[in-house]
């Protein structure tokens, strides 16, 4: 165990981190018992909830069966990825230079870790989604009987279960592997991270296609053609739409953030080992795991505090609790960095990561919140028709992508500054005292205004800024690259330290949305409906914010893996330079291919949604032509739309997964490691810009529609409302399918490249085996693209033609 020169204090701390992971899982179990003991409402509410529960469970079971074969194949590939190359120096040292033993044990361990990562990711998605489904009907019941505060508590705690599962399982897996394999753990953790990332990709792709096919089909026929309400029970796709919220937003986001959580651990250990080799200190490896443990504790405290604020604004309660978690994490990390490592710079970079997540809150809200002037401008443009709505949303999406990019650039620059410049020692005391005085003045001022809590949080960030300045110290240029990259991994660790809070906020959105849908379908009273509508509106904002955090964390994690890619090559080829020569045409070709893949992936995903939505629309139109369904004497066949969405989503999983996995392999084998580095740079830059654009444009269109539905610019059923629905429909597959799916796609390609790097270097040249492998990879990619790019085929019959007469609510 450990097999490293690890101190007794460090061993004890590792087991404490392991215990914290167990505490997180125990907290999730306690929350689960609280939710399950809450009232489920009347029989009509439970009947509707039963449709949602059965559809969600059936979908995920089908999806897991679909990907099981690919998991088996890739488990073998994970074994071979170690077995066919020489063991790393760390693996040889761990096994006392027994090369054969190192090769076989690490190969088996990576394959098993891949299975464990896949399993944990699936568990987070499956159990988290199930608890979200269990929570939605109970939120509806609480809104009717317990009021706003009780409904908020149940909705948020239902989502917190998913957050704690993500925290607990992620920390448990990563820490256990480190305890067992010590310095050789990065070789094993690559399998663990890849397993989590691959399942996240499938969850995102499948869930995104399912949810938006149902949503687009239900809205275009129900709202635009028939003039029906959001969740009118006569709409045959309404249950599929509600199911989609769970499989897309709950299961997909949880798995997405889980794999980012793991990827930053993998990259921090790989790069930490490089720094340990430079100065012999183990805190480069141990500290990121300790910070993760602190983050879990702060998330437990913060998520529990949401129900203690007693405010009538869900967003305010969640944001205050996030700040509580930030305060605990930053304070504890500074103490840890000072007392254990003796380097404040480690804590300041973690704080930069926490700040990056915090900054994404107002930044995303500015682009997507219904209260934002930008979104109100889109709503106002409905007066000029759907084209104006779409143009205004496109403009906002592009601009917001640039804003997000510069925020990420600022955070990366922080790591560069910390290790590239020396702040004069003689001025340090003045900066710290100045920060302390300014903090006290700010607290007093805010306390006089009646905002003491906000003043304390602001004072925290003032002190962080002061300590950041004094923590800057220049390192030798020969090693500066490694230090900066490790600093970036710490920013990622800090950004995801509150994974529990982020996943809770995200799951809160679909839980509230489902509760609102159940309320509409069950005919609940106006007071309860208003409570759920308020929670739903807050959930739309928190979902958009967590999407922004997920995209930002994906970029930070990808840049960290980018550094790990070079570190892994240098472990096999020590003379390899950390330089990508873009003047080299081969490297530039790799850059262009990488930059194009996020667009290819997005185009195929949007087409998949459109193809499935066409089938849903035809089915909804067919059923609405039944007079008995119109006069409410017959229940629509909800199962038919659920089946269409499920089958459509499953059909797209494997082709898109094949593209993500095989593209870097083909580039690496054909163009070699330098071009593969350019390929990764193209994927990261293009993917980040496109993901933020799609997420924010879609979110803005969604909330512009809701702003109109609140009675502005003509309100529901007006021509302006129809224009806003068109914008929302265009944005749906962008913000909930293509945009979110780019996060795991970027990391899958980075992880595959990092795993393949030693193989590409060792098997240099173009042997028959390399040519055959590359040709097979290219052929499989071409086949997958053709499968995903197939034309839309819908039966041409009278029953599926457009509905031209609006359906009144009383019909």
Compact overview of the structure:
With 811 residues, this protein is mainly α. The protein contains 22 helices and no strands.
Would you write up a description of this structure?
With 811 residues, the chain is mainly α. Helices cover 83% and strands 0% of the residues. The longest helix is centred in the C-terminal third of the chain and has 72 residues, at 638-709. The chain is globular, with a radius of gyration of 26 Å. The mean pLDDT is 86.
Main beta-sheet annotation: none
Average pLDDT number: 86
Radius of gyration, whole Å: 26 Å
Query: Distance N terminus to C terminus?
Result: 71 Å
Q: Compute the number of strand runs.
A: 0
Low-pLDDT stretches are none
Shape: globular
- How much strand content do the residues show? under 5%
Q: Given the helix and strand composition, which structural class is it?
A: mainly alpha
Helix content: over 70%
Helices and strands, in order, run as: HHHHHHHHHHHHHHHHHHHHHH
How many DSSP helices? 22
List keywords for this structure.
0% strand, 811 residues, mainly alpha, 83% helix
